Amino acid sequence: MNEAQARLTIEQYIAANWNPPKAAPIGYENLAFTPPEKNNYALFTMRISDRRPADLGGHVYRTIGFVTIQVRAPKGYGTTDATAIADHAKALFDGVNLGANNELRFSHAVCQPISGSAVEQEYLINVRGYFRFDEHT
User: Model-level pTM greater than 0.85?
Assistant: First the structure.
């Protein structure tokens, strides 16, 4: 598996399983997306954080990364809906293995509420899922 295959696998998995208890359309990187006004929504990103040899011969490389689903809710509507959506996103990645041979492995996911002056217009929760996969060269 390589990075492009991992991204496609994860995005297809999310598209097939995104059904939070409260309505929240999800946007993907570099695709047109218009956030709904005065409603919940989510944004997906994927990042690679490390890649290193995983065997002595140098033919297998282990890639480590994370996905983020950022749940956004309008200010003034409380935290219940956003938390329910974040819990759904977290459950998508806790201990999940993806790919034809389960080679894309998620260890765990965490929910991190975000606060501060930069997010005054929305309530935000970052759901981060940590994964790894091996690439055979």
Answer: yes
* CB neighbours of residue 137 within 10 Å: 9
How far apart CA 24 and CA 120 sit, in angstroms, is 20
What CATH code is carried by the domain that includes residue 10? 3.30.2000.20
Helix 3-17 and helix 80-93, axial crossing angle in degrees, nearest 10: 130
Q: Which domain holds residue 105?
A: 3-136
What is the tally of structural domains in the chain?
A: 1
Element at 85 (helix H, strand E): helix 80-93
Residue 116 burial (10 A CB sphere; 0-12, 13-18, 19+): exposed
Phi/psi zone of residue 4: left (φ > 0), alpha (ψ -120 to 50 degrees), beta? Answer: alpha
Q: Which residues contact 5 (CB under 8 A, 6 or more apart)?
A: 99
pLDDT band at 116 (very low <50, low <70, confident <90, very high): low
**Residues 134, 137: Cα–Cα separation, whole Å:** 10
